[in-house]
Amino acid sequence: MTTPDAPLHEPHLALHVEDLTVGYGGAPVLLDADIDIPPGVMAAIVGPNGSGKSTFLKSCLGLVRPAAGHIRFFGQPLAQARARVGYVPQRSTVDWDFPTTVIDVVTMGLYGRLGLFRRPGRAEREKALKALADLGMLDYADRQIGQLSGGQQQRVFIARALVQEADLYFLDEPMAGVDATTEAAIIAILQRLRDAGKTVVVVHHDLSTVKRWFDWLIMLNRRVVAQGPVATTYTRDNLRAAYGGQLAVLDPADHGLGP
Amino acid sequence: MSPLLTVALGTALLGALAGALGPFAVLRKQSLMGDVLSHAALPGICIGFLVAQERSLPALLAGALIAGLIAAGLIQLILRFTRIKPDAAMGIILSTFFALGVVLLSHIQHSGGAAQAGLSSFLFGQAAAMLASDVTLLSALAALVLLILATFWKDLKLVAFDRDYARALGRPVAAMESLLAAVTAIAIVAGLQVVGVVLMVALLIAPAVAARQWVEGLLPMVLLSALLGAGAGVSGALLSSTARGLATGPVIVLVAAGLVLLSILFAPRRGLVWRRA
């Protein structure tokens, strides 16, 4: 256990991952990964199915226990940095028929700072409403979550992470199955966070938008294949190394690689 | 108190108790776990009887609780060390414990003696045997559950809705889940006398399922579920008192099932009839 007074380890990095290995009993899903993400970037994590993208995210958030390695946020382990880390899970991970309202779900993002016994009050409601307004969802505040479309569900989840007022945000496939309006709203919010100096880390599946939206890239295929600024990392060789035979489905012209 | 009043009060309290906890079991998709806990109680009751050498209620209930906890622990071990899925693991443990309970029960009954009289009532319950002291115990238990729900409401809701997010926020998820599991197990054991190990889970689930049809919001759901549970308890007790040979526990469960049927059919918006119209 690291005490709060422990010396910071790589404090200049928003996220520093060293020698991370994760397995679920069988062969490791993620092997000996070293990943560094500087603050203030919008980073995409890409890789084929089963490449360990979600596992990586879950390890960072303490949801799965790594077999080896360590993870630091701004130089601190998760236990001390938790308040600085926001999270947007895949929306399919919850039951949207749960009996609750939109504003209630967004307010959940503030439970961490409320502690065990304090209840959300007026101040929390104001924060939640502001986050909903940022995502164009103010009119839905008192709706049942069961009435939302997929894109609206996603925006509610992002609003819930926004109220955390974190410095580093993890998002797990936020663009999966959402409409164009939602996609634009999400990108606008994420870019605004980035411009405010926050770090945004997105598990992403759509290679065609990597160059347009992101400025930092991590390519996984059970190991780290490549990482760095998109401009120098998004190359044909790296894509081939990460996706192997599956690269055949990619038309380079569609993905900003040129002829 | 007249015996009927005692029974009505006791079944109402039990219904409210199980009804208030039911939504958390249902929304967390842990309904079958309630069934495991109650079926697994049977061998515990028998062993409690064998140890105490008499029909001592504290010994029987302690046995029930311990057996339930062992069953829950075994399921966790199976899930952790094998690739068996949760429903299969629960099914295996439920039936094994219940079979063990029936074997012990038949053994005890054949060994004779007046002491074993009434032990088999734990199979389907015997509400008429309820004493004023049981009502006092159930009142205390209901107050405890009320206090726990009121104190930890927001974290219990978060854990029920989005467990992983709660963990990512650093909320005490394991503590909340253990607390819920513990009070649910205690409520189940408290109900075994009245409804029996076979039917107890219905009292946990039926009011919650019925309540969900009528209301939106977790708080209204918990309140209505407790109310429906209490209603089923009282009306079951009164109905069974109107005729000879109507077992109270099963009648309570039938009333609760009737509430579920009505709710599935006629609840506004979610009801089948409403949606067809």
How would you portray this structure in words?
The complex is a heterodimer of chains A (259) and B (277). Chain A is α/β, with parallel strands linked by helices. In chain A, 31% of the residues lie in helices and 22% in strands. Chain A has a domain at 15-94 and 165-244: P-loop containing nucleotide triphosphate hydrolases (Rossmann fold, 3-Layer(aba) Sandwich). Chain A contains ten helices and nine strands. In chain A, helix 5 (122-134) packs across helix 6 and helix 6 (150-162) runs parallel beside helix 7. Chain B is globular, with a radius of gyration of 19 Å. Chain B has helices at 3-27, 31-52, 57-81, 86-110, 121-124, 132-151, 153-161, 163-168, 173-195, 200-214, 218-242, 248-266, 272-276. The longest helix of chain B is centred in the N-terminal third of the chain and has 25 residues, at 3-27. In chain B, helix 1 crosses helix 10, helix 2 crosses helix 9 and helix 11 (218-242) packs across helix 12 (248-266). Chain B has 13 helices and no strands. The chains are: A alpha/beta (259), B mainly alpha (277). The A-B interface holds A 58, 61-63, 79, 82, 85, 87, 89, 93-95, 98-101, 105, 108-109, 111-112, 114, 116-117, 119-120, 144, 146, 160, 164 and B 27, 29, 151-155, 157-158, 160-162, 164-172, 212, 215-218, 220-221.
What descriptors fit this protein?
heterodimer, A: 259 residues, alpha/beta, Rossmann fold, three-stranded antiparallel β-sheet, B: mainly alpha, ABC transporter involved in vitamin B12 uptake, BtuC
Record the SSE blueprint.
The complex is a heterodimer of chains A (259) and B (277).
Chain A: E1 15-23, E2 28-37, E3 42-46, H1 53-60, E4 68-73, H2 78-81, E5 85-88, H3 102-107, H4 111-114, H5 122-134, H6 150-162, E6 168-172, H7 180-195, E7 199-203, H8 210-213, E8 216-221, E9 223-229, H9 230-233, H10 236-243
Parallel strand pairs in A: 3-7, 3-8, 5-6, 6-7
Antiparallel strand pairs in A: 1-2, 1-4, 8-9
Chain B: H1 3-27, H2 31-52, H3 57-81, H4 86-110, H5 121-124, H6 132-151, H7 153-161, H8 163-168, H9 173-195, H10 200-214, H11 218-242, H12 248-266, H13 272-276
Helix pairs in contact in B: 1-6, 1-9, 1-10, 1-11, 2-3, 2-4, 2-9, 2-10, 3-4, 3-9, 6-9, 9-10, 10-11, 10-12, 11-12
